[in-house]
């Protein structure tokens, strides 16, 4: 099925290298949602609306590889929990994956906010999205998955509390893609 998001995504500039999804998923310790794999398999890199950088198994820029960022996400969540013990922050409402119900990062905004899946034992195509402000003190849940979230945000102009108030911008359907 063609993702609705493809209404605004142009064809890739270059053909991406094939992704060995079995290897990526083994490295992460979980299968990934099909809508994510469909979109990411089409591009070498993707920044949707000039705002959300989608992590990629072949992320060529620092901070853009989904496997590398999984380790970074775990360290970040651990840091937030440690800081909460000292009263610096409220504890985050989620653990990091692979904990039950843990979050797995799939994107980062140009402001440094994070897009995650909230994992569950029912399989990756049932995961919903949560967005966190970069300091971890504000979290916004979205009831759908990867493609549903991006479509709602960029096509339907839904608001995300922890994103800056001028996003999505009226011209935010433009995409950088490789």
TrEMBL record:
Report domain Knr4/Smi1-like positions: 16-152
Going by the entry's taxonomy, the superkingdom of the source organism is recorded as Bacteria
Q: Which InterPro entries match?
A: Knr4/Smi1-like_dom, Knr4/Smi1-like_sf
Record Pfam families: SUKH_6 (PF14568)
SUPFAM superfamilies in UniProt: SMI1/KNR4-like (SSF160631)
This chain belongs to the protein called SMI1/KNR4 family protein
């Amino acid at each position: 099925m063609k993702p609705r998001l493809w209404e605004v995504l142009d064809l890739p500039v270059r053909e991406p290298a094939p992704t060995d999804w079995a290897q990526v998923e083994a490295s992460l310790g979980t299968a990934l949602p099909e809508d994510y794999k469909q979109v990411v398999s089409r591009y070498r890199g993707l920044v949707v609306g000039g705002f959300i950088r989608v992590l990629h198994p072949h992320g060529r820029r620092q901070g853009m590889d989904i496997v590398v960022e999984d380790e970074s996400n775990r360290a970040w969540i651990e840091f937030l929990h440690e800081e909460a013990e000292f009263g610096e922050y409220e504890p985050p409402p989620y653990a990091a994956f692979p904990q039950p119900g843990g979050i797995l990062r799939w994107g980062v905004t140009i402001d440094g906010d994070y897009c995650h899946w909230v994992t569950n034992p029912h399989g990756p195509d049932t995961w919903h999205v949560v967005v966190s402000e970069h300091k971890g003190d504000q979290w916004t849940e979205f009831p759908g998955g990867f493609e549903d979230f991006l479509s709602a945000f960029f096509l339907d102009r839904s608001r995300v509390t922890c994103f800056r108030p001028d996003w999505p911008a009226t011209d935010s359907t433009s995409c950088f893609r490789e």
